TrEMBL record:
Residues 473-534 form the Transposase Tc5 C-terminal domain. Pfam families: DDE_1, Transp_Tc5_C. This is HTH CENPB-type domain-containing protein. Residues 349-443 form the DDE-1 domain. InterPro entries: DDE_SF_endonuclease_dom, Transposase_Tc5_C. It comes from the Eukaryota. GO terms for molecular function: nucleic acid binding.
Length: 535
């Protein structure tokens, strides 16, 4: 007995509750059990079956070269690309409006009748000549059938294809209008299209059809990153104009400066413990909990303020502001001394005039920066406080500042669009590894932050990532020269095969990072806790 007959016999015995059942192989048994389960669900009304049609073509299909769809469509229909109306039917590979089908029907019939009373018809050859979409006798029989029925129903394939095209138009309009969309929204739009064009069909957009449609049109569900007011959204084009004007004028200002004297500077708040928003867990879990070394670590922050030069070089020192209850670091236990960090303390990590002056004094007005510089900064009000900056400015130092328009930081600020994401991702990788493997290492404590921050910034400054840093200026539109292809810092330092034996002398630990300078694979103990420095 064949496998199919055995499976059918087994299903029959289960349905009849027979005491003896045929023995099946494991894979056949699984299939049979699945079919039985579906049948039982069908009896209980839990299975819904439906049929869907879609129009498909392939490159090797023989299309009618003499057929001109433009001449067959009404003037209104010619406004659309592809299928211009749902009121169409398919004759072979040719789309025909129902109106033209009726013209063919009326022309095919002659007012005279045969002796037996049947309607006389025109010769097939004359029909084929006058109506190019008619090719075979079967097409002529379709005309007779339509005539007897008294109606020509639109082809299901055409209806669905038309709905698909209109749905894409409505979806793009909704996206550009800043509306929130879900699968149910698409089904609502389908109903609106059916109502607008008076389409009589039961098609509603099943789960599978909607998923296939989204894939075909590159539409997907994404996390909402920003909510903006209606006024701001509608005036977005004005912001674009301001951004274009700023970039254009700033590029003009660059002509008077050497690339070594042009900097972008921007401050960013980092949580004391940086974690990703996703984790692996068991499928079906509704509540996902993860531990943190301190509740304050994910609610309190510190501020970093880097400087990125136009040639893609980061300032050797990173300015960091910690919030201290007294407004200063304790003298009894001073913070860890990291050579590439300039540390500052205040009652809040949010910078003000005092910290602005401190930043210029300890970072900008040093020998690491040229005497006459052009700074590109965001719309933070303190950047325009020339009187505050002048209080710490040496006589030989000159500063000119170009202020990015408000609201444009995330689109044309080089540090924001090109550096900070990798910076934070690097810190997250270190923090999450410490959480899992080093319980005695508290990522939220000041010295732990300083060590991770210092090592991360040191890696980001490596010449290996020169093209990556330079790309930030290109992405902001400040240069037309696109840097060569590059590898991002986290992709290089945390690549897939980095986990193995630590290559530090005398260490037996498991490596978790590759140093961008010496290329050694190092463990967390050597790289962070022991503060690895090879150059």
């Amino acid at each position: 007995m064949s496998t199919t007959l055995l499976i059918v016999a087994y299903i029959s015995s289960v349905v009849k509750d027979a005491p003896k059942r045929p023995k099946l192989e494991r894979k056949d048994q699984k299939l049979a059990d699945r079919i039985v389960s579906l049948l039982r669900q069908h009896e209980e009304g839990f299975v819904e079956s439906y049929e869907e049609c879609s129009i498909t073509t392939s490159a090797d299909e023989d299309l009618d070269e003499l057929w001109d769809p433009e001449t067959a469509l009404d003037q209104d229909e010619q406004k659309f690309e592809g299928i211009g109306s749902p009121m169409m039917v398919l004759f072979g590979n040719v789309l025909v409006t129902i109106e033209n089908v009726w013209k063919a029907i009326h022309h095919y019939s002659i007012s005279k009748t045969h002796r037996n009373g049947s309607t006389k018809r025109r010769l097939p050859s004359s029909m084929y000549t006058k109506f190019r979409f008619l090719k075979t006798e079967n097409d002529l029989r379709r005309l007779v059938k339509y005539e007897k029925l008294g109606e020509v129903k639109p082809d299901k394939k055409c209806v669905i294809a038309f709905i698909s095209a209109k749905l894409y138009e409505k979806t793009l309009d909704a996206i550009r209008a800043g509306h929130i969309l879900h699968d149910d929204t698409l089904r609502s739009m389908i109903a609106e299209i059916k109502d607008e064009f008076r389409i009589d069909t039961e098609f509603y957009g099943s789960h599978n059809w909607v998923n296939a449609w989204k894939r075909a049109h590159r539409i997907s569900s994404r996390k909402i990153t920003t909510f903006v007011s209606k006024k701001k959204y509608l005036e977005k084009h004005l912001l674009v104009e301001k951004m274009d004007k700023f970039v254009r004028e700033t590029r003009g200002a660059f002509d008077g400066y050497d690339p070594l004297r042009i900097y972008n500077l921007d401050q960013s708040g980092f949580q004391k413990e940086l974690y990703t928003k996703r984790t692996l867990t068991e499928t079906g879990t509704q509540i996902v909990e993860v531990q943190t070394s301190s509740a304050g670590g994910i609610t309190h922050s510190y501020t970093v303020l880097p400087m990125l030069r136009f040639d893609g070089v980061l300032h050797p020192k990173l300015y960091v502001v910690f919030a201290e209850s007294t407004g200063s670091f304790p003298t009894t236990v001073p913070p860890f001394n990291a050579p590439n960090l300039v540390l500052a303390a205040a009652k809040s990590h949010i910078m003000g005039k005092v910290l602005l002056a401190d930043f210029f004094k300890r970072v900008v007005f040093t020998n690491d920066v040229e005497d006459d510089v052009l700074l590109v900064a965001d719309s933070w009000p303190c950047w325009t406080k020339k009187d505050v900056i002048d209080t710490v400015r040496p006589a030989n130092k000159k500063v000119k500042t170009c202020i990015i328009p408000p609201g444009a930081t995330g689109q044309i600020q080089p540090l924001d669009i090109g550096i900070f994401r990798q910076f934070k991702k690097f810190m997250k990788n270190l923090t999450e590894y410490a959480q899992r493997k080093h319980n005695d290492f508290a990522p939220h404590q000041r010295d732990s932050i300083i060590k991770m921050l210092s090592q991360t910034y040191w890696q980001l400054c490596c010449p290996t990532f020169q093209e990556w840093r330079a790309y930030a200026w290109f992405a902001g539109g400040y240069t037309d020269t696109r840097p060569p292809l590059f590898e991002k810092p986290t992709d290089y330092c945390f690549f897939g095969k980095v986990y193995g034996k630590c290559q530090s002398s005398g260490c037996c630990g498991v490596s978790m990072i590759r140093c961008a300078y010496c290329t050694k694979h190092l463990c967390f103990q050597d790289f962070i806790i022991n503060f690895h420095r090879c150059v």
